[in-house]
Design goal:
Glutamyl-tRNA Synthetase, domain 2; Arc Repressor Mutant, subunit A; three-stranded antiparallel β-sheet; two-stranded parallel ribbon; 21 helices; 11 strands; 47% helix; RNA-binding
Length: 486
RNA sequence: GGUCCCAUCGUCUAGUGGUUAGGACACCGGCCUCUCACGUCGGGAACGCGGGUUCGACUCCCGCUGGGAUCACCA
């Protein structure tokens, strides 16, 4: 039997990284087994579902490179297009006496819950409408339709005796008393099926073999299995992944700051880094930390998934991003950095080959693309601002002659020969003439060229900056020294 | 509160009855050095508690404690 897994996000908000990790694991399991990965859109809640969220989900997965074999844009993979099927199945259950209409109003239900809570009983539905409709009438019951005056809900008649066993691929065996499962609503009074019902029917119709999802769904599982049975299907295998928590130990949510895939993309993270981070949160392969997509697929299995929740560690993600910053091909970085430069309204004073050289000097100093562009501003902009503190410390009158001399040396280098070696030779002559150590000259030059005291190696900076801009900045710094003196 | 899940350094984890309990992030220190980084070398840091089982438990069982999830006409 070929493995078929699915990822079924609902388009009611951004694609959350805790959530997308479940999708990733489902994806890896399918790919590892040469099976199919299906993307399904759970949009039964038409009030909250938006086109923007759908686009964000699709774009996020594409950016991450998590590709699906079946799913959008194929209309069949949207729950909102399957209402006829849900109605048919619900009617079937009604006819067979496996479901029944419930006439309790939302307000009544709410009151019942509060009452149960006061009396410290379990807050579930007590089943008061379970036998209200005689079996003979059940087959004649129609689905809810408010406009036709049928504003009741349809509940699933859950078995009250026995047990339901979930043999989870990750958590092991969990046994539930059926008496604990109340009769859940499968059709709302507005004629819309609920999640637990639609999901089961989809998983059955699309022949899912393995349900991979967060363990917050574990309590739902016995109910869903019972619906599978009632519908005449065999439940799939389950793999419940532990949750991803925020630093405070609570389920990761928006209030923990950046949590969406888009947020990390816009912060200058690489999809490789995000994927690598996510795959190691709850899964391991010995001591290995760095995984290519091919390796993830090759090694992934549930046996090496942990059972306990993990706390999202932004610093480790940052380190991974840094790792990819240092090791991705320069051509790729050139491509990736452009939108970030554009976003700052900057222009690029060179071609891709020049950009590569620039990035090469910066990549081991920047952990994200945003940082990279920040550091690159002295390369990218014609005008630089000199930090006052740096100027006060390094651009003193005494250094002016040496700066002038260096400007002359640099200016005299033939453009065909303009590289680190010739630049270093120019430095050596100035150092010799003024009897200075490199350290005494490098810092003032650094301030003159970059505006600050921190930068890549000074020869590299000059090589990338180019002769003319270097000379111009050197001369400007020289006069700044003189002005400060007078 | 009921039900279910979970428990190794601060964090992510390796470990599957006998190990000086390993790695990674973060942190601290040395080296390298034109600054900052990178790199490199080294350091501190963990088996929640109590009972069993066993010649021997981080590993198996039970209890406790702690943490989490879930109990919607949301998904």
């Amino acid at each position: 039997m070929t493995v078929r897994t699915r990822y079924a996000p609902s388009p009611t908000g951004a694609l959350h990284i805790g959530n997308v990790r479940s999708g990733l694991f489902a994806y890896l399991f399918a790919r590892h087994n040469g099976g199919a990965f299906i993307l399904r859109i759970d949009d039964t809640d038409r009030e909250r579902s938006t086109r923007e969220s759908l686009d964000e989900i699709l774009e996020s997965l594409t950016w991450l490179g998590v590709d699906w074999d079946e799913g959008p844009p194929d209309a069949r993979y949207f729950q909102s297009n399957r209402f006829d099927r849900y109605r048919e199945a619900a009617l079937q259950l009604l006819r067979e006496g496996k479901a029944y209409p419930c006439y309790c109003t939302a307000a009544e239900l709410d009151a019942m819950r509060k009452q149960a809570e006061r009396e410290r009983r379990k807050p579930g539905y007590d089943g008061r409408c379970r036998d209200r409709t005689p079996p003979a009438e059940l087959a004649k019951i129609d689905l809810p339709d408010k406009r036709a005056g049928r504003d009741y809900t349809i509940r699933f008649r859950s078995p009250r005796e026995g047990i339901t066993v979930v043999d989870d691929l990750i958590k092991g065996r969990a046994v539930f008393e059926n008496a604990e499962l109340d009769d859940l609503i499968i059709f709302r009074s507005d004629g819309v099926p609920t999640y637990n019902f639609a999901t089961v029917l989809d998983d059955a119709d699309f022949k899912m073999t393995h349900i991979v999802r967060g363990d917050d769904h574990l309590p739902n599982t016995p109910r869903q299995m019972q619906i599978f049975y009632a519908l005449g299907f065999e439940p799939p295998a389950y793999a419940h992944l532990p949750m991803v928590m925020g630093p405070d130990g609570q389920k990761l949510s928006k209030r923990h700051g950046a949590t969406s895939v888009f947020a990390y993309r816009d912060l200058g993270y690489f999809p490789e880094a995000l994927l690598n981070y996510l795959v190691r949160l709850g899964w391991s392969h010995g001591d290995q930390e760095i995984f290519s997509r091919a390796e993830m697929i090759e090694y992934f299995d549930f046996a090496n998934c942990g059972k306990s929740a993990g706390i999202f560690n932004a610093e480790k993600l940052l380190w991974l991003n840094f790792h990819y910053m240092k090791s991705l091909p320069l051509a790729r970085l050139v491509r990736d950095i452009k939108p970030f430069v554009a976003r700052r309204g900057g222009t690029i004073p060179g071609d891709d080959a020049w950009l590569e050289k620039m990035i090469a000097t910066l990549r081991e100093r920047a952990k994200t693309l945003v940082e990279l562009v920040d550091f690159a501003s002295f390369y990218l902009n014609d005008e630089i601002a000199i930090e006052p503190k740096a100027a006060a410390k390094f651009l003193k009158p005494e250094i002016a002659p040496a700066l002038a001399a260096l400007a002359g040396e640099i200016a005299s280098i033939d453009s065909a020969d303009f590289a680190e070696a010739s630049i270093q030779a120019g430095f050596a002559r100035v150092l010799d003439r003024f009897a200075m150590k490199l350290g005494q000259l490098a810092q003032p030059v650094r301030v003159a060229l970059t505006g600050g005291t921190v930068s890549p190696g000074i020869y590299e900076v000059i090589a990338v900056l180019g002769r003319d801009r270097t000379v111009r900045r050197l001369r400007a710094a020289e006069s700044a020294c003189t002005v400060a003196a007078s």
